[in-house]
Amino acid sequence: MTTSGQKTYYHTTPIYYANDVPHVGHAYTTIAADAITRARRLLGQRVFFLTGTDEHGQNIERIARERGVDPQVYCDGIAARFVALWQRFDLTYDDFIRTTQERHKQGVYKFWERLRVGVCPDGQAAIYKGRYAGWYCPRCEAFKTEDDLRQPDNVCPDHERPCEWMEEENLFFRLSAYGEWLRGEIESGRLQIDPVGRRNEVLAVVKQGLQDFSLSRTRVKWGIAVPDEPGHVFYVWVDALSNYITALGFAEGGAHYREFWEQADERLHLMGKEIIRFHCLYWPAMLEAAGLPRPTRVFAHGWLTKGGRKLSKTTGNVIDAEALVVRHGVDAVRYFFLREGAFGQDWDFTEDAFVGRYNADLANDLGNLVSRALTMVVRYCEGRVPPKPGDDWDPPTASHARELHRASSKAAAAVFGRYEALDFAGALSDVWLSVSQLNSDIAVHAPWEMAKDPAKRQALGYFLYELLEGIRLVAVWASPIMPGAALRILAMLGQPAKEVVPEDLRWGLLQPGSALGKIEPLFPRIEVETQKDAAERKGAKRKESAVSETPVVPASEAPAVVSEPKIDIAEFAKVDLRVAQIVAAEAISGAKKLLKLQVSLGNETRQIVAGIAEAYQPEALVGRKIVLVANLKPAMLRGVESNGMLLAASLDGKPVLCGFDADVPPGTRIK
Ligand code: MSP
User: Fold this and answer.
1) Three-state DSSP class for residue 626
2) Ligand 1 in contact with 29 (CB < 6 A)?
3) pLDDT tens-place string over residues 524-555
4) Is 240 in the pocket of ligand 1 (CB under 6 A)?
5) Is residue 451 part of a domain?
6) Which contacts qualify for 482-489: CB closer than 8 Å, 24 or more apart?
7) 321 lies in a domain?
8) Which end of the chain is more exposed for a tag (fewer CB within 10 A), N or C?
9) In angstroms, what is the span from residue 504 Cα to ligand 1's centroid?
10) Is 140 a catalytic residue?
11) Does the pTM of the predicted model rise above 0.90?
12) Boundary (domain end) residue, out of 331, 347, 363
């Protein structure tokens, strides 16, 4: 810790095998590492966040050769794909290490210099030479015991392929001598392993008795040669684990190495549960033998599965995250991954769950909150931040926003405590509790009613100020997971910024009188066509073509009251009537009867102008479904462009909006 109380943290993801292009499983860990990194930076802490690629080993060499390319060229291509995907996911890592880089090789040599002379707790040499024979999985790059494998064919359960019998002379690391020491490290909490089930699993392995492991390979060529041991290259796990220090400039004892490894308050490795033993047993023991500081915290998250199976390019079980990002934005994808499953547990991805959460949490809860609040500020406060209430203001009715005014740092501490524990779903659920309480503040206080009473103008302004501050705070709290959406909300509040900063956590930063930014839909609803809709659409199409050949109503049966000329169905079909949902509404200055509405048609949002201002308050309209004539030519009304017309009945000269008696998705055709 520095003298200012600022803490120093080192966060890592595994370095991912460069055998194939990245998939969502890799993104899952990296997004989580990014979220905890952003959360801690937001608290003003110093964090170094590392990711990278693991590029050596037999498997990668074989794949590259099969594709007819040099392994280095192959790895360059894969590493570039990782970097490109990480950009798409808005990841703020500080460095990207590749194990084929010179800095890494030099670091491994320096590590080896220390390791080769290392002494075990029992006084024996940590390194020795011996023969190794056993079942080897070239995909895991690891020897397996028969118990690990599926019989009768010694199939690796992770890769579903038979292992090979291998015998060779290796350098060994005497892990068997570190059992007691490792137990002490884990039980004392000097090495904190989470979740607790994983900690128990590692302790059980220690209890069973640890096996020495080999540090070098003689069959493999694509790797870092072991100095003075002709024909040996470093075993891929020794090469891989040491990335965590080589990236910090271990070779030359650089400043980053000193600050983020030697002196860090926490050295945190994040990973999937399948590689926890390497990180909790091999890595600390090797560092101890080399006389170097060890990691202080390991978190092993669960697997993201689809159809109950682990994601894998090899088995074709994939999720197209890029398509999700293109369609719904990176923030929604980051939100879903960290909200849907408990971080330590396995969880299954489904498109339905994605759409459900997106619509419920993002489009409805958060999206509507923001658009309703901003619409009211536009209407009642001319689009400017209203006056700020003092701490002593005593509102007639309690509100959550008022609670946040009083105790925002307590609420923030609860959310950030969850981030600290890597409980992302918990942090988001806390934030969303505030979102829904702010929504209910609006319902309870009915600001549009307050607006009618001149005696309540001041209370209305104060209420809206606190509401806007509540929204600003929830955006800042959610920003580690939804950084882009948070900045968009801040921009709409008239606080454009490139990043959130610790200062943003303080209540009351909005300046009364300052103008709001442009109001835009935050998370447009995803419209899903159910099977029933699809069947109805098809059925209706068939009917339409049949009907169009016969008169709708025989002329002789036409009701007498209908005096206007009749149209045939083809003429009617020219009118494109759609369900639309109002996402924002505001008055038009100088036009008493008109409202400017932003309406969503599912896959597009457009602006219309409607003559309903005398009958409807803008903020009461947000979220409401209407009938829209979607193919009207654009028109300018009082200088505002209108791209469609809503349908309403006229009752005593007042418009009454058409509605639906079931929840129909926006964009649905009305016929
Ligand atoms: N190269 C080693 C790690 C060396 S670290 C010193 C390796 N690479 S890997 O490409 O196989 O990546 C494994 C990691 O990717 C997992 O530990 C996890 O972080 C992430 N995931 C890969 N598939 C995953 C899921 N289906 N679900 C969740 N995480 C997954 O092992």
Assistant:
1) strand
2) yes
3) 999 876 555 656 656 655 554 443 332 233 33
4) yes
5) yes
6) 482/331, 482/334, 482/335, 483/38, 483/90, 483/331, 484/90, 484/329, 484/330, 484/331, 485/329, 485/331, 485/335, 485/366, 485/522, 485/523, 488/520, 488/522, 489/370, 489/522
7) yes
8) N
9) 35
10) yes
11) no
12) 347
